[in-house]
Amino acid sequence: MPTPMVHGAADMEAGHGMTSFLSWLMSPQDYMPHGMCFLWQPELIALHVVSDSLIALAYYSIPVALVYFVLKRTDFAFPSIFVLTGLFILACGTTHAMSVWTLWYPDYRVDGGVKAVTALLSIGTGIAIWKVMPLALTLPSTAQLERANGLLGAEIGQRQRAEAALREANAELERRVAVRTADLEEEVVRRRNTEATLRASEERWRSMFEASAVGIAVLDEQNHFAATNEALQKMVGYSGEELQSLGPVDITHQDDREATQKLIEDMRNGKRQDLPTEKRYRRKDNKVIWVRVSAARAFDSSSSLQGIPAIIEDITERKSAEVAWHDARDALSRATRLTIMGELSASIAHEVNQPLAAIITNGQACERFLAFSPPDLDEVKDAVGEIVRDGRRASEVLKRVRAMSKNTAPERGQVDVNHAIAEVLALTRDELQRHRVAVQTDLRSKVPTIMADRVQLQQVVLNLVMNGIDAMRAVTDRPRILTVRSQLNDQGNIVVNVADSGVGLDPANRDRIFESFFTTKPEGMGMGLAISNTIIEAHHGRLWAESGSPFGTVFGFTLPLAAGVGP
Amino acid sequence: MTVNQIIVMIVDDDDSIRKAVRRLMKSYGVAVETFASAEEYLGSDRLAKTSCLILDVHMPGMNGLELQKRLVASGSVVPIIFITAFTDDRARAQAMNAGAAGYLAKPFSDDELLGCIRSVLENAGADVPQSAPR
Fold first, then answer.
1. How close does chain B come to A364, measured CA to CA in Å?
2. A346, B86: Cβ pair inside 8 Å?
3. CB-based contact A233:A243 (threshold 8 Å)
4. Looking at the partner chain, which of B16, B108, B113 has a beta carbon nearest the beta carbon of A355?
5. Could you give the CA distance from residue A431 to residue A437 in angstroms, rounded to a whole number?
6. Cα(A1)–Cα(A115) distance, rounded to whole angstroms?
7. Disruptive mutation site among A361, A396, A397, A482 for chain B (greatest number of B CBs within 10 Å)
8. What share of chain B is helix, strand, coil (3-state, %, to 5)?
9. 3-class SS at A145?
10. A361 contacts B24? CB cut-off 8 A
């Protein structure tokens, strides 16, 4: 450091203003150049010049680098420190530049000013650096940053994987949504179709309801006609509105009301599933018509449909035809019965003659015993007892004959089937005997009485007995046995069998024997079995024939205990 | 009295007829034995004791005509009077041809039956009751 020597008086005066200080600073000075101190030795001069110049250049390059750095790293944390440091180094460089300058030009005042500025800047920089230090210390190191970076990288990787999974899930969801959407669209189409079908169906049913030739009605909860079609309104002569305040019972013939009421109740409480019934209605004009009512099961309470739907047909014509047919059948049945009775007349005469002969003989014996003296009253008493008994016996026979021959309409009542059979066997006793036919009976006492037409049932049994006798006419090589059985089967039907030991059925004829006018007998009419079949059917039973074992034929018929009401 | 030697046999399946005829015969003092079937009569030991046979035509099992045939075939000469409640000319002809003494339709009168029995027994040389005995 060149030491200022006492050369030239420094006109420096304290207390002058800044302006005067600057002018003092810049004013020409009369000092010696610093080179003088080196005695202008070129080596020494050169050494100082080169060293100070290099230092100055080095110092100047640093702020340039700092400025460049700050400009490039805009994110840098402490730019002011850099600026301050740059200025401080710039100032340091200038002091060295001034050292070179003062070798030749003795501007020691400027040189001192530059140093003062440098001193101020270096102090400020020192203070600023210490101030920033705590903050600078918190800055993460590169290793820390790398670690953080690594963690971040891992996190990012994880997140990316999660995102990929999410994307995949999303895609899956979208796919499902697409499928479901397609399904829904299909469903919508289907529903639309179903709706269209339903609408078409509804229209179809409605038109059937309205245009139907048979009466259709729906009963509401109060058993009123909630809905009726035109056919029913015409049938009963009431309007639809009138029918809404009427029920089936109201328009039913008084004799059928009780049964109708019961049927409806049974339908309501589920005792009956359907209700096919034939009965009479009384029209508004008081005319009686026959109807067949078919009511379906009542809708259950869970159904949105309520009430009982019913179909009502006017069967008045059919009924009158039926009545005519029944009359004809009854007439034919009677005719057939009388024919058989005619065949039986000789046997019947025998049955009456037997007791009559005994009566007459007893009577004549009485005359003789009374003519005794004294009269043999004991004998007379015995004889009279027998006369009475035989008289009753003859009367019984006639009663049976009369019952079978009378020309009255069929009558139903409680019939003891076994008793009815026994009467027929009594009536044919002689006929059987005459044809050498032994009768075996197996009439079960447990058979209950049934509602039936006794005479008609007896006609069937009579017919079967007479057929049995005929079938055994040609039998000479084995006993002629007619077996008559009655029993109750598992289905609660009375089963009656009449079996013979005759020639048996020709299988070819088996299906035809119940046809009218079919006969295998030369003098037969071919009506017996046909009529018998009709009679059993009218009793809701069944008549059949099968081959006996080992020979002969077995005829059988069933009679349901709970036979419905006949025509 | 030789009446006791006369025994009339009655074969009829009808209980009333048997009793009535027996009673009538009794009123005439004629001894009577009754059988309910041809088989019962054949099975008895009374064939040889029979003065006269009153025989029903229609009976279960062996009928009257068959019994007649059997008796004739066995050489019996017992007079037979048929009684029947069934008028059948063929049966009557068959019976008479086979040597029946009578063929009476039920109901018959006592005169008919008695007349028939009387002639039968007279033919046989027996003493015949004309009226009530005692």
1. 7
2. yes
3. yes
4. B16
5. 9
6. 12
7. A361
8. 40, 20, 40
9. helix
10. yes
Q: CA separation (Å) from A352 to A359, A380, A397, A420? A: 11, 23, 7, 20
Closest CA to A35 of A47, A24, A22: A47
CA A468/CA A473 separation, integer angstroms:
9
**How far off is chain A from B97, nearest CA to CA, in Å?**
21
Q: Output the CA angle B88-B92-B94, nearest 5 degrees.
A: 120
Place of tokens 């009077």: B81
Q: Specify the 3-state DSSP secondary structure of B91.
A: helix
ipTM of model: 0.88
Q: What span, in angstroms and rounded, lies between the C-alpha atoms of A527 and A334? A: 11
User: What are the chain A neighbours of B132 within 8 Å (beta carbons)?
Assistant: 368, 371-372
Tell me the residue ranges of DSSP E strands in A475-551: 480-488, 493-499, 543-547
Residue type, A38: F
Q: What count of residues does chain B have?
A: 134
Local structure of residue A526 (DSSP, 8 states): S
Span between the terminal Cα atoms of chain A, in Å: 158
Report whether pLDDT(A5) > 60.
Answer: no
- Domains along chain A? 18-138 (no CATH), 212-314 (3.30.450.20), 322-560 (3.30.565.10)
Backbone angles phi, psi at A468, to 5 degrees: -60, -45
Question: What is the tens place of the pLDDT at every residue in A122-151?
Answer: 888 888 888 888 887 887 777 888 888 888
Note whether A299 and A305 are within 8 A (CB).
yes
Phi and psi angles of residue B3, each rounded to the nearest 5 degrees, phi first: -55, -35
Centre a 10 Å sphere on the Cβ of residue A94 and count the other Cβ atoms it contains.
19
Sorted by where each starts, the structural domains of chain B and their CATH numbers stand as 3-122 (3.40.50.2300)
**Cα-based angle B31, B35, B36 (whole degrees, multiple of 5):** 145
Partner-chain residue, chosen from A349, A353, A358, that has the shortest CB–CB distance to B20: A358
For chain B, first and last CA: distance in Å? 10
**pLDDT tens across A47-100, in order?**
999 999 999 999 888 888 888 887 887 776 677 777 888 888 888 889 999 888
pTM: 0.52
Q: Name every chain B residue with its beta carbon within 8 A of the beta carbon of A435.
A: none
Nearest CA in chain B to A394: B16
Give the integer Cα–Cα distance in Å for A244 and A225.
Answer: 5
From chain B, which residues contact A within 8 Å (Cβ)?
A: 14, 16-17, 19-21, 23-24, 26-28, 58-60, 63, 83, 85-88, 105-110, 113, 132, 134
CA atoms within 13 A on the CB side of B109: 3
